[in-house]
Amino acid sequence: MAKTMGASVVTVYEAVRDLANKDQQGFVSDNEFNSFARLAQLNIFNGLFDELKDSKRLSRSGFNPNRDKDRRKRILEDLSAFSTTDTVTKSSGVFSMTGASGADMARIISISTAGSILLDQSTTKPIEICYDEEKIERILISTISAPTEEFPVALISDDIHVFPTTINKIKVRYYRYPMGRSNTGATSDSAVTYTTGGTSIDFELPEHYTSDLIYEIARMIGINLRDNSVSQFAGEELAGIKQSETL
Fold this sequence. Notes:
Layout: H1 9-22, H2 30-61, H3 65-80, E1 83-89, E2 105-113, E3 117-118, E4 121-122, E5 126-130, H4 133-141, E6 153-156, E7 160-163, E8 169-176, E9 180-181, E10 187-188, E11 202-203, H5 210-221, H6 228-246
Parallel strand pairs: 5-6
Antiparallel strand pairs: 1-8, 2-5, 2-8, 3-4, 6-7, 9-10, 9-11
């Protein structure tokens, strides 16, 4: 299976530079661009979760379900590249995700007990996730829904608190924050970086987010994208990008 190529930081930089010149915003330094680029990638990444919520709501309302399903499928496919799993051991009564394990955690997908394989059967149990401290208090004092090792519950705050407290190891599936990719498509621990005459680190978001990244960075720099001449120029830049990608 071929590696996913990230959006080219060189392509995005050159387009943003030309747009800035067109809009008379002046020179965009490498350091300025890199700061904007990292924040732009994060903004677009976070926006994907908002789109998922919107698409789910539209599907329930029956509004254009076929088109909505296609977009939702694409977003889920793109996010799958950022899905990872960590096993966390309890320390001082909590499961901490602020250390090396989970330091890059953006959003939790699911939590389960670590479990094992016993007589060809997994003993792993899904853990219900709760973000409401008042709700968890009601659950803990309930004589009907109190957590058990068969039906555990986790409270998500600064750390993860799992009930019952006899559970000492859990598996956490989560989406990590995007970083960068090398020019071969390999995931890099380094953030996206444009370097003049050097080795740049591409965006980790896939190539089809190139136009989104250009517009987001342009917006952050203050380029007036409502101006007809700038919008037309941006369209020509993006058309050139797409044509070069197909060659």
